[in-house]
Amino acid sequence: MGQITPPHLVKLIVGMLSPDEKLFTWAQEEMQMLWGPIDIFSEIMPFTQTSYYEKEMGPGLLRKFVGFENLIDPGRLAAIKHDSNKLEEQYAQNPASQEQVVQRPINLDPGYIDPSKLVLATTKNYSHRIYIGQSMYAEATLHYHKGSWQSWPYTYPDYASGAYNDFFNQVRQQLMSQLHPE
Fold first, then answer.
1. Mean pLDDT across the chain
2. What total number of domains does the chain contain?
3. Do the domain assignments include residue 123?
4. How far apart are CA 7 and CA 136, in angstroms?
5. Three-state SS at 163
6. Could you write out the three-class secondary structure of 71-111?
7. Could you read off the pLDDT of 60-81 as tens digits, one per residue?
8. CATH number of the domain where residue 130 is located
9. Is 157 helix (H, G, I), strand (E, B) or coil?
10. 75, part of any domain
11. What's the domain range around 93?
């Protein structure tokens, strides 16, 4: 029989999408109130690998990632996804967002990095996703193998492109430093 052990702590990340980079600042402030300080940021990048979100978010989407200083138990991911959905709804119902002509001004996708993989939370079930409770699912979007991030056949095109790997490497390195301080 296998020995039951608690999971290792992981590094929370959130991928943000919006046509308005000012919303990244708003979201970062709100998320820090929920999950603590952000200690790592990606650059802002154009989101051009797919048009999937354009119908509800409009054209000219931008992508930014953040990582949080406080390591988390991976079992919190479902609750964190609920919190990120509430933040999206909160901004969409804000009178300031009424100036926007898009249905969804910002998309917040939480996940985590552990030494071997990047896991993303989602509300959508599919053959490669695992139910994690609270009406949420998760998928191992990328795996770290032989010193680099590798995609799966189902990996989202933007994640599979390698465009975010520098950021994910920085997050993984930060995590390793936090798990094994000198």
1. 95
2. 1
3. yes
4. 19
5. coil
6. CECHHHHHHHHHHHHHHHHHHHHCHHHHHCCCCCCCEEEEE
7. 999 999 999 999 999 999 999 9
8. 3.30.70
9. helix
10. yes
11. 11-179
